[in-house]
């Protein structure tokens, strides 16, 4: 197993269980304890988890920007694919769609049918690449400064570009959802871009898998009282979050 995929599996295990032992990771990954300890050292160095005696625990905050995009693709990948399929099912022919940067919105781009005409507006380079071979999809790119870790364009020019956009629906990712039901990320300028997207779209749907719930001390870009129409998440999301989102009047689809 490649190191990138192995470390993605470790991060997923830690986030699911909050604490894991080295021996359990060895069984999960089929590798030696020396390999697991080396992986934990790398992940701890980037503050993606905290090493303990004999294992590791989750940090309250995980900065996705520190994880290479290829590793993010492997985190909760099955759940992200299901979430993306439901997102695509909400699209109508000739919709104007905004796709945010991120691994789940990238999955949305990958699953758009070849026979569905759309206008897609995005600042995500990987989304543009995924749409290259879809002849019925018109792609509009909001320019800006390159953020290599996220394969996206951000900055004042990106915000300004979205201010001139009007869309039927937007799909956005998030680094986390706090216990107070704020939707958060870790980069201030990326947050500004997300807020501009929310202003540009008639409907805004947040795509978040179960690993994103319970994150703390990040920068909010939306809340249940402002900016979003709905949430698509997976069956492993804590029921309390789903209930409170619905109680706040948010449409929630669990897949």
Automatic annotation (TrEMBL):
<dbReference type="InterPro" id="IPR036388">
    <property type="entry name" value="WH-like_DNA-bd_sf"/>
</dbReference>
<dbReference type="Pfam" id="PF08220">
    <property type="entry name" value="HTH_DeoR"/>
</dbReference>
<dbReference type="InterPro" id="IPR001845">
    <property type="entry name" value="HTH_ArsR_DNA-bd_dom"/>
</dbReference>
<comment type="function">
    <text>Repressor of the lactose catabolism operon. Galactose-6-phosphate is the inducer.</text>
</comment>
<dbReference type="InterPro" id="IPR014036">
    <property type="entry name" value="DeoR-like_C"/>
</dbReference>
<feature type="domain" description="HTH deoR-type">
    <location>
        <begin position="3"/>
        <end position="58"/>
    </location>
</feature>
<dbReference type="InterPro" id="IPR036390">
    <property type="entry name" value="WH_DNA-bd_sf"/>
</dbReference>
<dbReference type="InterPro" id="IPR037171">
    <property type="entry name" value="NagB/RpiA_transferase-like"/>
</dbReference>
<keyword id="KW-0805">Transcription regulation</keyword>
<dbReference type="Pfam" id="PF00455">
    <property type="entry name" value="DeoRC"/>
</dbReference>
<keyword id="KW-0678">Repressor</keyword>
<dbReference type="GO" id="GO:0003677">
    <property type="term" value="F:DNA binding"/>
</dbReference>
<protein>
    <recommendedName>
        <fullName>Lactose phosphotransferase system repressor</fullName>
    </recommendedName>
</protein>
<dbReference type="InterPro" id="IPR050313">
    <property type="entry name" value="Carb_Metab_HTH_regulators"/>
</dbReference>
<dbReference type="InterPro" id="IPR001034">
    <property type="entry name" value="DeoR_HTH"/>
</dbReference>
<keyword id="KW-0804">Transcription</keyword>
<dbReference type="InterPro" id="IPR018356">
    <property type="entry name" value="Tscrpt_reg_HTH_DeoR_CS"/>
</dbReference>
<keyword id="KW-0238">DNA-binding</keyword>
<feature type="domain" description="HTH arsR-type">
    <location>
        <begin position="1"/>
        <end position="82"/>
    </location>
</feature>
């Amino acid at each position: 197993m490649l190191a990138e995929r192995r470390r993605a599996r470790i991060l997923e295990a830690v986030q699911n269980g909050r604490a894991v032992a080295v021996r359990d990771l060895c069984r999960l990954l089929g590798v030696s304890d020396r390999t697991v300890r080396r992986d934990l050292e790398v992940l701890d160095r980037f503050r993606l988890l905290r090493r303990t005696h004999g294992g590791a625990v989750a940090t309250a905050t995980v900065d996705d920007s520190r994880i290479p995009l290829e590793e993010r693709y492997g985190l909760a990948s099955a759940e992200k694919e299901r979430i993306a399929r439901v997102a695509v099912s909400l699209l109508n022919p000739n919709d104007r769609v905004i796709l945010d940067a991120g691994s789940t919105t990238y999955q949305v781009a990958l699953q758009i049918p070849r026979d569905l005409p759309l206008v897609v507006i995005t600042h995500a380079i990987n989304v543009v690449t995924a749409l290259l071979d879809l002849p019925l999809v018109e792609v509009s790119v909001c320019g800006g400064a390159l953020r290599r870790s996220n394969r996206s364009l951000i900055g004042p020019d990106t915000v300004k570009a979205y201010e001139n956009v009007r869309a039927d629906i937007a799909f956005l990712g998030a680094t986390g959802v706090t216990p107070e039901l704020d939707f958060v990320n870790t980069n201030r300028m990326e947050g500004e871009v997300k807020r501009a997207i929310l202003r540009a779209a008639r409907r805004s749907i947040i795509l978040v898998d179960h690993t994103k719930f319970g994150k703390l001390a990040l920068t909010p870009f939306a809340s249940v009282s402002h900016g979003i129409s709905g949430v698509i998440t997976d069956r492993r999301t804590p029921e309390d979050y789903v209930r409170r989102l619905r109680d706040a009047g948010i449409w929630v689809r669990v897949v």
